Amino acid sequence: MDRVPVQPKSYPTNLLQKDWTKRAIYERCGQAFVDKVHDMEVKDDDVWIVTLPKCGTTWMQELLWLVMNDFDFEAARNEHLEVRTPFLEFDFLIHKDLNRALAPVEALKSPRLIKSHMPLPLLPQQLWSKKPKLIYVYRNPKDYIVSRYYHVRSIGFGMSTTLEQFVLETLDEDADVPSEDFEHVAEFYELRNEPWIFYTSFERMKTNLRQVIEDICKFLNKTITEQQMEQMLKHLSFEEMKKNPKLNHHWEFEQIRAKHQTEHENHNFVRRGKAGGYKDELSSDIIAKMDERIQQNLDYYKLSLQKLLLLDENTPL
Question: Would you call 117 a catalytic residue per the annotation?
């Protein structure tokens, strides 16, 4: 589904002071859904996970759900992640029924863990006033763009497009700077020191997952024993996640494929789980074009990719 321009009813002016009239916003779900989300009830004990697609969302979702549910690994293995922690936009994207669009989230028992890929100004207005816990995860765009390619082919889109064509279309050299993706992350990065927001990166999770788990426990006011930590590190390892059917979005894929009835490839959702994997799949010319486009966006915000990924400035990317 193509994205269309949308306009939120109000902007988070109490969080960020900026000229919101210049903020171009597009959303696949359309204006009516955007309005419904804007007005939805947010509970004080909600926990939200917000990311761009393919940035470590599933990894962090499972981590959060386990921390919030007393490390109940048996329950996690017996129910799909998407059922335990709904993707806010998914039901409407599949069924196009505004009346039931938020039903999966509304049916959750508190405390709710809710996932969304929507940008800050399209999230519920009550988020800005109630300020429940929110976790944001970013990832090197060179990796998440490659990962998106295999994801869309798994659900039956872009089958005639090569990886390099997909990368170039995603970069879109004629598009505005900053890009939508960079506006998405830059707004949350600016809020990273807010006490209700936990900002991290896929790369930081790869570098020191134990520390991220400890930090999340502290953020959510939870305790963890060493035995539970060892269980977490194993359960959240790439090898375990790759073979766990409850974490590879089979539940979502079945609904999408049934709806569209299109040819598709079978790429595991947890595919490579690697930082810097783009280097194995893209030519040096394409990587150079990506670097140039990314740098244009970084220059706009006076940021570096290392800063956005919470890495040392000398870390090669």
Answer: yes
Instruction: Say whether pTM exceeds 0.85.
Output: yes
What is the helix (H) or strand (E) element at residue 38, kind and residue range?
helix 31-39
* 262 contacts 157 by C-beta, under 8 angstroms: yes
CB 111 within 8 Å of CB 47: yes
pLDDT by residue, tens only, the chain of 317 residues:
578 999 999 999 999 999 999 998 999 899 999 999 999 999 999 999 999 999 999 999 999 999 999 999 999 999 999 899 999 998 898 889 999 999 999 999 999 999 999 999 999 999 999 999 999 999 999 999 998 888 777 665 555 688 999 898 888 766 888 999 999 999 999 999 999 999 999 999 999 999 999 999 999 999 999 999 999 999 999 889 888 887 765 556 666 656 656 655 554 545 556 778 889 889 999 999 999 999 999 999 999 999 999 999 988 88
DSSP notation for 268-306: -SS----TTGGGGTS-HHHHHHHHHHHHHHHHHHT--HH
> Which residue out of 80, 95, 117, 250 is catalytically annotated?
117
User: Which CATH superfamily hosts domain 4-308?
Assistant: P-loop containing nucleotide triphosphate hydrolases (3.40.50.300)
- State the Cα–Cα distance between residues 206 and 238, nearest whole angstrom: 10
Phi and psi at 78, nearest 5°, equal -105, 0
Question: How many whole angstroms separate alpha carbon 140 and alpha carbon 275?
Answer: 8
